Q: What sequence folds into this?
């Protein structure tokens, strides 16, 4: 089963102003190209660089989060965290334990981003935790499934969290209940 986070849950308010500025700059370059023959070479450069920036903005704000996700199969857990450069698969035998935690009341609270994306409650990538460990994180909110593996800590909280926890517990490792959540 595949799990992700809806684009409407995490879209950054900076996306629209950045997109507007890039659009205005591209429109200015097109206007210059059409109306000023002596400035066409400069306008072509502006359109080229503006197009590259537009592709970068769309890639960072739209495409990368759409690729990110978790897959729970009968014998493995797969993570796709493109901005955290994490594409890993854990077999059932690699997973040591799993429990539901609230990050506000935990030693596993996120302290700093190592590499990844943090937009309001959406976090995806590799993060430093308050207890000093580094974790692969994919969540939207403060309730997460804390998964310990042989070589990494995972904090997972996709959309349809209850269904994800149930599926994870049935197929991989039983999830320990936490009375504080």
A:
């Amino acid at each position: 089963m595949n799990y992700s986070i809806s684009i409407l849950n995490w879209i950054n308010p900076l996306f629209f102003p950045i997109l507007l500025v890039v659009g205005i700059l591209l429109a200015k370059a097109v206007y210059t190209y059409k109306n000023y023959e002596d400035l066409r070479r400069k306008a072509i450069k502006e359109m080229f660089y503006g197009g590259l920036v537009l592709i970068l903005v769309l890639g960072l704000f739209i495409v990368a989060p759409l690729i990110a996700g978790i897959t729970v199969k009968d014998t493995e857990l797969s993570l796709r965290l493109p901005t955290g450069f994490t594409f890993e698969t854990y077999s059932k035998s690699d997973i040591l334990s799993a429990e539901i935690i609230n990050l506000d009341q935990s030693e596993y609270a996120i302290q700093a981003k190592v590499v990844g994306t943090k937009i309001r409650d959406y976090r995806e990538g590799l993060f430093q935790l308050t207890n000093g460990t580094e974790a692969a994180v994919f969540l939207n909110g403060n309730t997460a499934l804390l998964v310990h593996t042989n070589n990494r800590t995972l904090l997972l909280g996709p959309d349809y969290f209850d269904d994800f926890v149930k599926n994870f517990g049935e197929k991989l490792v039983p999830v320990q209940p936490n009375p504080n959540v």
About this structure: Strands lie at 2-3, 69-72, 76-81, 86-91, 95-102, 110-119, 122-129, 134-140, 143-149, 153-157.
